[in-house]
Write a structure and sequence with these properties.
The protein has 320 residues and is of the alpha+beta class. It folds into three domains: 104 residues, no CATH class; 49 residues, SH3 type barrels (Roll); 84 residues, 2-Layer Sandwich (Alpha-Beta Plaits). The chain has nine helices and ten strands. The strands form three sheets. The chain has a five-stranded antiparallel sheet with strand order 6-5-4-3-7. Strands 8-10-9 form a three-stranded antiparallel sheet, with helices on one face. It has a two-stranded antiparallel ribbon with strand order 1-2. Helix 2 runs antiparallel to helix 3. The longest helix has 47 residues.
Length: 320
């Protein structure tokens, strides 16, 4: 009983020193109260820099990048300035909370951690650097119609991870930046004019010079050619049922739909003028042989055999 009373008087229960625990909690409480104003100020400063980052991003995109015509560069510059401004605000907030030593320790170990993260995220970092490269690539801009990696569509966005395409069927395709950099892509929007090709064929009985003149005249009336541009007509080969040719002409092309529209107009115009001049566009003709001659020969053979059998029976039945 005396020992229990002594332990209670000294502030210990079951070996735990309650006085030290209470003093520790009181110290934490006092430190929290003392640092609470700094914490509140640090949070306000971080929020202020976050809001400021938005204005800085808009300022850089609209004012400093006014002379830059490439939209992707403006977008990337705005995102980079936003991230840098927020990072500055984060460091200032840590300084207000007297966490400079902690920050120094973290930065000291960031080298080793960064190496490990870099090895683990090789693909992600590759996409990031590829995104920066694509942003400054003049041959690829927002709104361009491109074909790459088996997909075709308008470039909706270029970010640090991927390029987003909007296809003609109104679906979006997300392609990693490294795929765009490593694989060739075709851009329909970098040139105002493109050459469109049409393949066709006429019958062997047709006047080839007449076909050439009518085709060139029709397309010249339908598609105006600029200076230095001409419509080209070439016969290619003797086909199975036609003499085939290709005709190439220039027209305004900004996307794949423009190519399809020009080809459709050309096909309808050529078909119309060929019909008006009785020029035949043959289709493949195939002759099917169902073994008619073989059937006839087998019939004759069977008939001969029956005739021979009948004659033999007649000879057998005749009286000796």
């Amino acid at each position: 009983m005396m020992q229990t009373a002594t332990e209670s008087t000294n502030g210990t229960i079951l070996g735990f020193d309650l006085d030290k625990l209470i003093n520790k909690l009181q110290g934490w409480g006092e430190a929290f109260i003392l640092r609470l104003p700094n914490f509140i100020v640090a949070v306000l400063v971080f929020i202020l820099f976050w809001i400021l980052a938005g204005y800085v991003s808009k300022f850089i995109r609209r004012i400093l990048m006014r002379s830059v015509t490439q939209q992707s560069i403006k977008v990337m510059a705005g995102k980079t300035s936003f991230a840098i401004t927020v990072l500055i605000g984060f460091f200032i907030a840590l300084g207000i909370m007297d966490l400079d030593k902690v920050l120094t320790s973290v930065l000291a170990g960031a080298g080793v951690v960064g190496l490990a993260i870099g090895l683990a995220l090789q693909g992600t970092l590759s996409n990031t650097f590829s995104g920066v490269l694509l942003s400054f690539l003049p041959q690829l801009q927002l709104g361009d119609w491109i074909e790459t990696n088996g997909f075709a569509g308008f470039v909706e966005d270029i970010n640090l991870r991927s390029v987003i395409l909007k296809e003609s069927d109104n679906n979006y395709v997300v392609i990693p930046n490294s795929k765009i950099v490593d694989v060739p892509f075709k851009n329909y929007s970098r040139t105002k004019r493109s050459r469109v090709s049409i393949d066709c064929g006429v019958g062997y009985e047709e006047d080839l010079e007449k076909v050439q003149k009518l085709t060139l005249k029709t397309l010249n009336e339908l598609f105006s050619q600029a200076e230095g541009e001409t419509i080209e007509f070439y016969y290619k080969e003797f086909g199975d049922s036609s003499i085939n040719f290709v005709v190439r002409f220039w027209t305004d092309v900004n996307k794949q739909k423009d190519v399809l529209t020009a080809q459709s107009k050309a096909v309808m115009a050529i078909k119309k003028v060929f019909d008006a001049n009785d020029i035949n566009i043959p289709f493949p003709i195939r002759t099917l042989d169902f073994g008619k001659n073989k059937f006839r020969s087998e019939t004759i053979t069977i008939a001969n055999e029956r005739g021979s059998n009948s004659a033999a029976q007649a000879d057998d039945s005749a009286p000796a």
